[in-house]
Amino acid sequence: MESNKGGITFAAIVIVVIVLSFGYILTTPVTSGVAPTDFSHTSVQYVNLGADAAGWKNLNNFENASAVNPTLSFALNTLVYFNVTEEDGAPHNLYISYDGAYTTSLFSKINSSISSNPSKWEGATNYGILSTSQVTQTIGHEVQGKYPFHTAGIYTYWCTIHYDAMYGIIVVSANSTPIQLAVHSPVVNGSPDNGATAQMQGLNSENVDLYLNSNDPVE
């Protein structure tokens, strides 16, 4: 009898695990196209971020230094150089994940929920642009990592150590110019961070022009 009860309990546990796993599969974002196969590109862009446990500092926008976790927009086949500066002496890294083809509904869904549940958008398949050892814990240290955006759609980026505060959205447009985002980056301190949306490809916005030049840096 005891053996029979044990078997029933084990079977129940297996069923629960299967149900939970199935639910996770249904809610996990699509993450294909994350690992780069080559670094060929048609244009180059640069992003300057400050690694801080309170959020990625938008070092591109000197008029709004308090802006964190900027939403970034690039054209397809852009090679992006992420220049990261260690800000607080804590360990940090930079990872990205692919969440699917761009739609206004998907962008709105991620934009409205990422601040309350950032781990949901950190897909099981991701790519590390910069490791903890590369960023170091030396305040003021600068390091550069690169990523070729060969797949159009919506990405999320974050520090895996401080995933609940250091996160953001990247939109890659299949057109020759980036998508003009109608909304801003995730909510900061209870209100939209209106200074954090970054339009790339040399497009000037009211807040910031992030384009530097079109030449590859020396390797």
Key words describing this protein structure:
single chain; 4-stranded mixed beta sheet; globular; alpha/beta; 12 strands; 6-stranded mixed beta sheet; disordered C terminus; about 220 residues; 2 domains; Immunoglobulin-like
Give the end-to-end Cα distance, rounded to a whole number of Å.
70 Å
Give the class-level CATH name of the largest domain: Mainly Beta
What fraction strand? 25-35%
Describe the main β-sheet briefly. Answer: 6 strands, mixed
Summing up helix and strand content along with how strands pair, one would put the structural category as: alpha/beta
**Which descriptor suits the 3D outline?**
globular
In spatial order, strands of the major sheet run 6-5-8-9-3-12
Share in helix: 10-25%
The residue ranges in which pLDDT falls below 50 over 5 or more consecutive positions are 9-32, 182-219
What is the total domain count?
A: 2
By CATH, the superfamily of the largest domain comes out as Cupredoxins -  blue copper proteins
CATH architecture of the largest domain: Sandwich
The run of helices and strands is HEEEEEHEHEEEEEE
Number of strands: 12
Named CATH topology of the largest domain = Immunoglobulin-like
Compute the average pLDDT: 73
Kindly provide the radius of gyration, computed on alpha-carbon positions and rounded to a whole number of angstroms: 20 Å
With helices defined by DSSP (H or I, 4 residues minimum), what is the helix count? 3
